[in-house]
Amino acid sequence: MIEAAEHPDILFICHECDALQKVPAMEPGSVATCRCCGSTLFRCPRGGTEVPLALFVSSLILFLIANSYPIMALEIAGIERETTLLGSALAFIHEGYPALAVIVALSSVLIPGFSILGLVYVLLSIHHQLDWPFTKPLLRWVSRMLPWGMMDVFLLGILVSLVKLSALADVVLGPGFYAFAVLIVLYAAAVSSLEPHFLWEQLDRPSTRHAEETA
Ligand SMILES: [Zn+2]
């Protein structure tokens, strides 16, 4: 663990006590702590972008499966109905709640999808030093939207409705449901493995490819 000490380049504000301090260059696996209150300023991940990239690519695959296959099928009196994630969110339109449909679709499908895709793009660009365009605005937008992705709340809603519907109809869970359940665990692990400070530092650093081109 490294205590924040003097460094000419990086200024960091502690989120706990607002102390402004200079932070030294970090070794992988080390943690910077505030010199005033001792709280964690940021961590320098040991594996760089490898772990978050692997988790977000896995999340993207599961996200595509969860949205391509039905999450459940209902059978009442011989009539069978299947629905996908987006289909179940948009079903609120037919029930006369268009605003609710938009909120559910945004928080459970569109925002998580945008966040996962955006972070895979940014992490791939950093990890392979590809210098892809728009990585900085994309990371800024994803950081703003991450708190609005609420797939876990949506899963809780599905489970509650399952308990209620099981008394009225035959409910068969589809592959989309299992992919969605695993996705929520992986997505939470992927988000917690992110270290925004490290990503911004990598994006600000000129890549070796760029250095070779300009040499
Ligand atoms: Zn502090």
Would you give an account of this structure?
The chain is of the alpha+beta class and 215 residues long. The chain folds into two domains: 2-43, no CATH class; 50-214, Up-down Bundle (Butyryl-CoA Dehydrogenase, subunit A, domain 3). It contains eight helices and eight strands, in the order βββββαββααααβααα. The protein has helices spanning 50-68, 85-94, 98-127, 135-145, 151-165, 175-193, 196-204, 208-214, and strands spanning 2-3, 10-13, 20-23, 31-33, 40-43, 72-76, 79-83, 170-173. α2 (85-94) packs antiparallel against α3 (98-127) and α3 crosses α4 (135-145). It binds zinc ion. Zinc ion binds at residues 14, 16-17, 19, 34, 36-37, 39.
- Distinct small-molecule ligands in the complex: zinc ion
Q: Can you tell me the CATH class of the largest domain?
A: Mainly Alpha
Provide the helix percentage: 55-70%
Structural class: alpha+beta
Number of domains: 2
- Determine the N-to-C terminus distance: 37 Å
How are the SSEs ordered, and which strands pair?
Blueprint: E1 2-3, E2 10-13, E3 20-23, E4 31-33, E5 40-43, H1 50-68, E6 72-76, E7 79-83, H2 85-94, H3 98-127, H4 135-145, H5 151-165, E8 170-173, H6 175-193, H7 196-204, H8 208-214
Parallel strand pairs: 1-4
Antiparallel strand pairs: 2-3, 4-5, 6-7, 6-8
Helix pairs in contact: 1-3, 1-6, 2-3, 3-4, 3-5
The protein binds zinc ion (ZN).
Residues 14, 16-17, 19, 34, 36-37, 39 line the site of zinc ion.
